[in-house]
Each structure stands twice: as structure tokens, then as C-alpha cells.
Amino acid sequence: MTRWVPPRPHLRPALRPAPLRSVPPEPAGGQNATAPVSVVVPALNEAGTLPDLLRDLALQQGSVLEVIVADGGSSDGTTEALGRMAPALPFPLRVVTAPPGRGAQMNRGAAAARGWDLLFLHADTRLPRHDLLAAAAQAMHRERLRLGTHRVAGHFGLRFWRTRPGATLTYYLIEAKTFLNRPDTINGDQGLWIGRGYFEELGGFDETLPYLEDLRLARRVFETGTWVTLPGWLHTSARRFEAEGILSRLLLNAVIRAAEELGLREFLGAAPGLYRVQANAGPLRIGPFLRVLHRHAARHGWKRLVRLWLRAGGYAARNLWQIPFAADCLRNLRRGVPPGHGPAPWLERYDRYLAPACRGRAVRAALACAIAVGFYGLLLAERVRNPGFPVDTPPPKG
User: Fold this and answer.
1) What is the pLDDT of residues 111-130, one digit of tens each?
2) What one-character-per-residue DSSP string does 291-302 give?
3) CA 91 to CA 311: how far, in whole Å?
4) What residues are paired with 93 via a beta bridge?
5) What is the phi-psi region of residue 322: left when phi exceeds 0, alpha when psi lies from -120 to 50, beta otherwise?
6) Which domains does the chain have, with CATH numbers?
7) Which of helix, strand or coil describes residue 323?
8) Is the C or the N end of the chain the one with fewer CB within 10 Å?
């Protein structure tokens, strides 16, 4: 019988991952493939999207589920809508409250979970197949047995549903990358499947920022365990790309990832509007973010700024694989191959023959120069378009 548990007020916001219940680690093979799965969904004003996800979960076959919605203080009737749906759902539905921010919300949801496996989904996710979660559970079970460890995490590939045409190759490339298991290709939109014991070992999601919690967890899995691509894919909304402009959004994503890689935490915390609630997303101007980044990068003097640019060149060098991968995607798109399912001969050649050379000092320096030229070119272009736009920095030290 489905039970509805109303949200309880959360009185103490936390800045760090909340302590999770101490549980014994899973055995090396993990739980059996039909063990209960706790689906954790962070929500903030998602009354228009969350019911569709719950209906998709209700149609899943061969899976034993519980669903925990971690609400960050919705004011659009999200929790009331869940209360109305709960009696008709074939699984227990509970709501916990948390400070806004996906990391904090998902940690609260995980702490309330009763299943051995956790699946973190975003509220605008859709499940296109009725056996998707059963197949994913089987895949996770097999990989844990094969590797002999519980330190395995899974993710799905993505398909976007869009309301506007255009940018076909760009969307194809983004979707194809989500089927890979390379650094910087895994994020929360893809659904994150992880055992509760392993999740606790990793310390849960980082809560110091209202974003980047998925990238930081993905990095810790790369360092301590193994990522696997689960069978099938999820559908997710392209609303952020469509509202902000896909190229501007991708550029900002690259800036954020680079700042994270370079350790520019002050920039990540200080840039105004760097992370927006999806429902309030609007046209994106990249210039203000670049200005704030430059101010924080240059505040300790030009020597540190040069070192940062060189490190940025190293980060770019590690991501040069995306150029041959884009060539493979163009070839597969023209042949009508679905994203993530076609051959990647150019990427294979790059990995085999070019990747070691591309990590050399000369390549990193050349990329650093190219990035710096592009960065300051964008700043100047913003100033030309908006004469009142300042491109200044505090006086350098030393």
C-alpha cells in the first residue's frame, strides 16, 4: 500500500555533505539484481515536470522502487501535487525537505533512503522504456560481480527533447558524449546509480556550492572506482539550452569546468547568477562571467595569472580528444546512426597515436596562448557591444 509522508521542516542548513546513516558496505557482487532501489529526486518548483517522471517510474516493470523527493522549498505547489498523486502510485513516495541546492537536497534524500542502491534523477527526466531500471539493475549486478567490488557507479546516456529546431550536430555531439566514460562527460542529468555503502564512502555530494555536486562526485568515482554506462538512455529537457542559447551555455559550462579544474573557488562562489534555477533561466551573456573570472584570476599578480593560463592549456590538452570525436559524430549523424551507438575510428586513432604527444609542454603552451587570446578577445568584444561594460582588474601584486 502506498504511503504518503508529508515533508518535515529542516531546521539546520548544512554547508558540507550531511552525515549519512552508517551502513555495512555491499558485498563485492553487490545486492541481487531485484533488490529495492531508492530513487532520489531533488526538486525546486517542479510541479510542472515531476508528475511526468513519477508516472514513468510507475510504469517500470521488474523493479522494486521507493521514491524520495528532496524538496528545496518549492512555492509552486510541488509537494501538494505529490500528495495528490501518492495514493495511485505503486511504490512508496516520501518527501524530505532540505536547503535549496542539489547537493544538499540529494544528501537528505539519500539519508532517508532504505534501499541498498541509490538512483539520483533530475525532476525533468523521462524514462522511455518500461524495463529501463530492471535492465540497469542487471547491468550493475553483472559489473560488480565481474570487477569483484562494490565500488561501481553507473550512468545512462541522454536524449534531449526540444521545442526548437536547429543545432542538430551540436545536440548529437552532446548526446553521444553522455555514453562515454571519460572525465567531464558524466553529470547528474544522466542519472547516477550508486550503492548506498559506496556513496557513503565517497562522503555524499558536495554542498559547498549550489552546483558542481555531480562533477565532483564523478571525479571521486574516477579516483576510487569504476564508471559504467547503463543500457538504454534517459530523456531530458533542453530547456536550459533553448532559453540561454546552446553555444553560450556550452561556453559557460567550459568556463565553469576549467575554473573547477584550476581551483578558482572564489570565482565559482562569487560570480553572480552563475547557477540559476532552471525555471528562471533566461538569455545568457557570457561577458560578465569572464570579467569576474579575470578579476579573481589576476588578483594575486601576473605571475600567478600566467601559471593559471598554462594550467588551462593543460586542461585543454586533456580534452583534445573531443575534436576527433566530433568528426566521428558528424560521420555517424550523416549515416543515420543514433548518438552513442556508432563507431569512433578517429577517436581510436587519436587515443592510440596522438594523445601522448598532445600532452607535451609545447602543445600545452600553444593551447594556453590560444585560450588567452580567445578569452580577452571575448572580453573586448563584450566591451564594444556594451560600452559601459568594464574590463578591469585590481592592481597586480608583485
Assistant:
1) 999 999 999 999 999 999 99
2) HHHHHHHHTT-H
3) 49
4) 4, 67
5) alpha
6) 4-237 (3.90.550.10), 243-385 (no CATH)
7) helix
8) N
